[in-house]
Amino acid sequence: MTGKGYTCPSPTRYRSDTDYYSPTTYRESIAGSRGGERLMGRLSTLGRALFGGVLAFTAIDNLRDIDGMAAYAESNGVPAADRLVPLSSGMLLAGSLGVVLGRAPRLSAGAIAAFLVGVTPTMHDFWNREEAEREQQVIHFLKNTALLGGALFFLSRGPADE
């Protein structure tokens, strides 16, 4: 189908292996261009640094105020918060540094995903909060959900751990 300069590809063009928006297809089209491989490498490095760096900052911040974070977790009903908060914050730090450095990428992304799956509904349970606090918890819940999406992307696209 054509019209006004636009050509509509056949419906079979949208299969997952040939989808215009498929990350693999897009990456291959960019990488096939002059300088594309270098650009993709730089974008990958920048993406890993931004994603992992923000999470590393969060983990370090948690570890710097471990008693306050444990008390906050305990107030949210987390059992053994004095042990789980340092453990989960350390797991987040290790995972985020692994993503930044490109070391054990699937294991690192899996550690981040596990942290977010455990923490998000427990610490940011906006459905149980009073009106004054609800909006802030919705923001944190949605932010963590987006970060979980990023971790799952790194988990699915990262090279196998060596």
From TrEMBL:
Membrane topology: Multi-pass membrane protein
InterPro entries assigned to the protein according to its UniProt record, in alphabetical order: DoxX
Annotated protein name in UniProt: DoxX family protein
GO cellular component: membrane
Originating species: Halococcus saccharolyticus DSM 5350
Location of this chain's protein in the cell: Membrane
Keyword presence, Membrane: yes
The entry's keywords: Membrane, Transmembrane, Transmembrane helix
Highest taxon in the source lineage: Archaea
Pfam families the UniProt entry points to: DoxX
Lineage of producing organism: Archaea, Methanobacteriati, Methanobacteriota, Stenosarchaea group, Halobacteria
